[in-house]
Amino acid sequence: MQKNSRMGNTDVVRLLVKAGADVNAKDTWGTTPLMLTVLGKSRRAAQCLLELGANINARNVYGQTALMQCVEEDAGMHSFAVMLINADASLKLRDYQGMNVLHYAASAGLDNICRVLMECSEPDVITQVNKFGDSPATEAHLRNRTTTAQLFQLKAEGKELSPREFIPDANRRDLDTPTASMDDDDSDDGSET
């Protein structure tokens, strides 16, 4: 189940579940098949697992969820993160260091994912501190994520800016469509090359 989830083999995953495989099976590190779809950048496999009853808020031995792992990956995972949020992934859960998903996105400097998370989060999630006393905004400052830190400041001031007005060109990667390495339901358009 783990390998096929990571590789995005949805037909095999469905057959395994039909034969009795546990859609929420964990390995030694507590990694679930859904978490492996993040590593394999397979949205299609993630959607399949969610349809089959995967626990979207399952945690590994570090307390991380699939959404936390997704937002720490890279800006190309924006649409994957939005899919998980729309599937009711919790934004309030914290890992064992007290970090929520917004801490992860701020640390990675993923401005537009931070913006989406702030729009979807309750105010207390935006200002939550981890066990070291750092808020997501502090995480951005500590890692020299200047535009991300500025986004938190603007949010604190009650200002709303669209992503393209706020984000400098060099940081717009997370606005783009999914990269070719991440599968998508409409990636096979039937054309021959």
Automatic annotation (TrEMBL):
Top-level taxonomic group: Eukaryota
Organism: Aphanomyces euteiches
Region of interest: Disordered: 159-193
Any matching Pfam family: Ank_2
UniProt keywords, alphabetically: ANK repeat, Repeat
Annotated Acidic residues bias: 182-193
SUPFAM superfamilies for this protein: Ankyrin repeat (SSF48403)
Ranges of the ANK repeats in the UniProt entry: 1-28, 29-61
Start-end of Basic and acidic residues biased regions: 159-176
Gene3D superfamilies: Ankyrin repeat-containing domain
Keyword Iron among UniProt keywords: no
Alphabetical list of InterPro entries matching this protein: Ankyrin_rpt (IPR002110), Ankyrin_rpt-contain_sf (IPR036770)
Protein name according to UniProt: Uncharacterized protein
tRNA processing in keyword set: no
